[in-house]
Amino acid sequence: MKLIRDWLGVPPRSQAASGTDNETLREMTRRLDRLPVGEARYLAAFAYILGRVAHADLDISEDETRAMEEILVKQGQLSPDLAIIVVQMAKSRNLLFGGTENYLVTREFKKMSTLEQRKNLLRSLFAVSSSDDSISLVESSEIRQISAELGITHAEFIAIRSGFREYLAVLRKPRPEAD
Question: 149: which residues sit within 8 A by CB, 6+ positions away?
Answer without folding.
Answer: 103, 106, 107, 110
